[in-house]
Automatic annotation (TrEMBL):
One of its GO terms (biological process) is translation. One of its GO terms (cellular component) is chloroplast. It comes from Corchorus olitorius. Residues 1-54 are annotated as: Disordered. Part of the 50S ribosomal subunit. GO terms for molecular function: structural constituent of ribosome. This is Large ribosomal subunit protein uL29c. Residues 8-27 have a biased composition (Low complexity). Gene3D superfamilies: 1.10.287.310. Belongs to the universal ribosomal protein uL29 family. It comes from the Eukaryota. It is found in: Plastid, Chloroplast.
């Protein structure tokens, strides 16, 4: 049920309404209130907000992943960034041709790439490389990348080759 009250200098008579818990104010405007009972916090369920224990576990995994990334050399980080970007591209292709894929992989890969690039930038800052020089080095690095098939595509090709060999043998 909906209650409508209008506060204006003209007099308008409405049927008496039940007392509400809203305090009287000098509000001049239209106030719309639902007269339905409000659910208590115990009745509402939140699907988006993770519990405290799960967020602690996620944070621990993230810290573990950061330690793992920091243990790698800058060259290894660069190679893995290229591989992950290739995997991200393959996921986009799968999405465009409407193949089955895990949509959560997009976010996971983007986050991992961002973490790796963050560690790379932290190292540049430690070496005293400023932002402008960093961008210049980045451009040079991107131009030097040799395009090679991503690991998932290599596995797919090997699988197809094994199936063809099996067919030709049979």
């Amino acid at each position: 049920m909906l209650s409508l009250s209008i506060a204006s200098p003209t007099t308008v008579s409405f049927p008496p309404k039940p007392k509400s818990s809203v305090p009287k104010t000098s509000f001049n405007g239209v106030r719309i209130q639902h007269l339905c009972p409000q659910p208590s916090p115990s009745q509402t369920t939140s699907f988006r907000r993770p519990s405290a224990s799960s967020s602690v576990v996620m944070m621990a995994k993230r810290e573990e992943e950061m330690k793992e990334i920091r243990a790698k050399t800058t060259e290894e980080i660069n190679e893995e960034v290229v591989e992950l970007k290739g995997e991200l591209f393959m996921l986009r292709l799968q999405k465009s041709v409407r193949n089955e894929f895990k949509s959560s992989e997009f976010r996971r890969m983007r986050k991992r790439i961002a973490r790796m690039l963050t560690v790379k930038r932290e190292r540049e800052l430690e070496e005293g490389i400023n932002k402008r020089l960093s961008r210049k080095l980045d451009r040079q690095w991107k131009k030097s990348i040799v395009v090679k098939p991503v690991p998932s595509l290599i596995k797919l090709r090997e699988k197809e080759a094994a199936e063809e060999a099996e067919k030709s043998a049979a």
